Amino acid sequence: MRFSSEQLASCTRNYSSELGSGGYGVVYRGDLPNGLPVAVKVLKVSMNKKVQELVRLYGFCFDMDTKALVYEFLENGSLEKYLYGEEDGKPAARLEWKTLHGIAVGTAKGIRYLHEECQQRIVHYDIKPANILLTGDFTPKVADFGLARLGERENTHMSLTGGGRGTPGYAAPELWMALPATEKCDVYSFGMVLFEILGRRRNFDPCHGESKEWFPRWAWERYEQGEIDRVVSCCGDGMEKADREKAEMMCKVALWCVQFQPAARPTMSSVVRMLEGEMAIVPPVNPFHYVMDSSSSGSSSSALWSGSYQSSRDTTAGRNSELSVSPAAKSTDPIIEDVTRADAP
Ligand SMILES: Nc1ncnc2c1ncn2[C@@H]1O[C@H](COP(=O)(O)OP(=O)(O)OP(=O)(O)O)[C@@H](O)[C@H]1O
Ligand SMILES: [Mg+2]
């Protein structure tokens, strides 16, 4: 049932009978037109500005047999469709690099709002291209925020009670290892989205052969070898110099976002500034120590990764006990401090 503010004012006789107040607002006594007595909690939350980068919720239904949310309709559907098509079909259309870059920046601003600008910080827990919806002119809007607390979902998602949250392939390690999670898990998932934008492919895709099946690690290896150009080339042919520079920045930001240690990942406001070229990017460090064996070549680490990936996909496993964190993952600390400094305004 949706009430207008006029209906609420009428049924509470202009908020004349106060029952009490709590952390979220004041509660008033009221009567619905059919005589049902009600308590109306007026929430203190206020949207102090109209946020362009979030999908608007128009209303909801909470009847006994129907629970539904009514959102604004986004004409172009989800970003997923444009990166690699739904259900492994062909992409709906090939978006220009400039459009994709705008989608990345807009999405980052939407998540920044959830983390840093709204009264109560909201962790999304399920950032992925399917939850980035596009208007008719390809302005992105983040969808499905605030749903993580609704409880168990279909088995395409990790269970909340099993210690894992989010969608496999995008969920940060702390989610599938049942470690404490903060808003930095959204930063990790956003990093995976950036890789998918750069590569115009799913971040993990066995069709690409062993060395390239997990695009983020391939991108790290190229970067480490001084071959970031090869990552940039995935974005499109014949790009202008300025666009190539933006793609390079996007790759570096993505490498920072998917760092194993949540504290090493940047805040979303830093991500926005780095993507917009307003903040220098410290050279990224290896985000994948925890799946890479530094003493051997890619193949063994690939096996390790696919093992951990498989078990993280296993919705019943929830947490991954085989995965050990190598000491190398901790050795990034001095650079983490650099990032923290770089984060400061
Ligand atoms: N407001 C909307 N406007 C237009 N299309 C939408 C809207 N909301 C959802 N869709 C379409 O419906 C699809 C299914 O959405 P849904 O949120 O149920 O699944 P999902 O995003 O793949 O998974 P999740 O449950 O993790 O959010 C989306 O991928 C999108 O194409
Ligand atoms: Mg969704």
Automatic annotation (TrEMBL):
InterPro entries xrefs: Kinase-like_dom_sf, LRK10/LRL21-25-like, Prot_kinase_dom, Protein_kinase_ATP_BS, Ser-Thr/Tyr_kinase_cat_dom, Ser/Thr_kinase_AS
Topological relation to the membrane, as annotated: Single-pass type I membrane protein
Keyword field: ATP-binding, Glycoprotein, Kinase, Membrane, Nucleotide-binding, Serine/threonine-protein kinase, Signal, Transferase, Transmembrane, Transmembrane helix
Residue stretches of biased makeup (Low complexity): 303-312
Residues bound to ATP: 41
Keyword ATP-binding listed: yes
Domain Protein kinase span(s) in chain numbering: 13-289
Localisation per UniProt entry: Membrane
Extent of Polar residues compositional bias: 313-324
Signal peptide: none
Source organism superkingdom: Eukaryota
Region (Disordered): 303-345
Main localization (coarse): membrane
GO MF: ATP binding; protein serine/threonine kinase activity
GO cellular component terms, A-Z: membrane
Family: Belongs to the protein kinase superfamily.
Annotated protein name in UniProt: Protein kinase domain-containing protein
